[in-house]
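Progress note, sequence design subtask.
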């Protein structure tokens, strides 16, 4: 039993040490738990504060968002009202413009329809005129197919050109020459000899040449045209070119510009033969030009006839100009004398003014002469005028 005491004491000691160790561990564990609890509480507190701050921030953002949403709602409401007003105004404007456009379009349509009706009426009238013209062309073809009627047609055109350009008395239609021949027209030049114009052009050969279809027909028609024109040129030269009575050149009138151009283009030899025979082929335009040249020649002749009278009138005009020059010189002398008299009067006036000034500055008994006192100015001697004319 005594041997077991130390063992029990040792065991007790070990137990006590173990209990102390366990107690220390428990204390440490409790303190660690308390620290962890405190840290957890602190963390929870911080999290709660952070959550509260976030909640406060969210509340503030919510309030700001609500304010912004309210402002945006008001702005959208205003914009919607403005948009509604602008849309209404635009619709009213579009409706007004559309109404005006429809009215204008209707008016233009009515006017266009009226103009169209007028143009249709004009077209109907033109169609009627074309119908009448076609009938006249048919009549003209009939006239041109008849040799005598065609001659009368060319004669009429030639007479119209001559009558429109020349004064009466300077031409004659179908006069009788000394050889008994009667040309279609004679235009009298200043030397007294008439210029003969013949209007009977052979047109059958030209018509045959235009109607030819084959080369053979065209060749025969061209040969016939050369023969007919050469024969007619020879007839004009033999009948109407009378030495000493008529001009040395006669005119053969071609009443068609196209025929004249065709002759010059395809039958230059015929035209040259006519020139050598002193017969000139003229179209209506060339005849008008020749008549204008003749008119100028007649005018120059009348001017030459009146040259002596013009010379005498110019002499009298020079005499009148000389007298006018002399009278202008005399008038200039009168104006010079008048200017001299005016200059002398101005000199006298200046002298009188100076004397009046000196008299006004004179003192009487120590008192200056009043401006209201009368100033006696001696009468100026009369100026001697120069000898009058």
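Output:
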């Amino acid at each position: 039993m005594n041997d077991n005491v130390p063992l029990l004491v040792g065991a007790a000691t070990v137990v006590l040490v173990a209990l102390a160790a366990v107690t220390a561990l428990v204390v440490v564990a409790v303190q660690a738990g308390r620290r962890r609890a405190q840290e957890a509480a602190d963390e929870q507190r911080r999290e709660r504060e952070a959550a509260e701050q976030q909640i406060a921030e969210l509340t503030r953002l919510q309030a700001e968002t609500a304010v912004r949403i309210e402002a945006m709602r008001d702005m959208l409401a205003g914009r919607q009202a403005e948009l509604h007003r602008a849309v209404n105004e635009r619709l009213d404007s579009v409706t007004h413009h559309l109404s005006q456009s429809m009215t204008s379009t209707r008016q233009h349509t009515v006017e266009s329809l009226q103009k169209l009706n007028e143009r249709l009426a004009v077209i109907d009238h033109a169609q009627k005129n074309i119908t009448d013209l076609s009938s006249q062309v048919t009549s003209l073809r009939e006239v041109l197919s008849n040799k005598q009627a065609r001659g009368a047609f060319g004669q009429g055109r030639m007479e119209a050109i001559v009558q429109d350009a020349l004064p009466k008395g300077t031409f004659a239609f179908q006069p009788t020459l000394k050889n008994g021949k009667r040309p279609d027209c004679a235009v009298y030049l200043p030397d007294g000899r008439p210029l003969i114009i013949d209007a009977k052009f052979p047109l059958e050969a030209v018509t045959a040449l235009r109607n030819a279809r084959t080369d053979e027909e065209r060749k025969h028609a061209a040969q016939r045209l050369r023969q007919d024109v050469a024969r007619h040129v020879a007839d004009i030269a033999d009948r109407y070119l009378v030495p000493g009575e008529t001009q040395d050149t006669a005119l053969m009138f071609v009443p068609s510009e196209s025929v004249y151009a065709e002759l010059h283009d395809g039958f230059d030899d015929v035209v040259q033969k006519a020139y050598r025979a002193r017969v000139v082929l003229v179209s209506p335009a060339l005849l008008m030009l020749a008549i204008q040249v003749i008119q100028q020649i007649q005018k120059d002749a009348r001017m030459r006839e009146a040259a002596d009278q013009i010379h005498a009138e110019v002499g009298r005009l020079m005499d009148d100009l000389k007298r006018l020059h002399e009278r202008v010189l005399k008038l200039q002398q009168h104006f010079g004398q008048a200017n001299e008299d005016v200059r002398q009067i101005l000199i006298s006036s200046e002298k009188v003014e100076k004397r009046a000034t000196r008299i006004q500055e004179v003192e009487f008994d120590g008192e200056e002469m009043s401006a209201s006192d009368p100033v006696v100015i001696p009468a100026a001697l009369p100026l001697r005028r120069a000898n009058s004319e």
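The longest helix spans residues 4-145. Work on this subtask will continue into the next period as scheduled.
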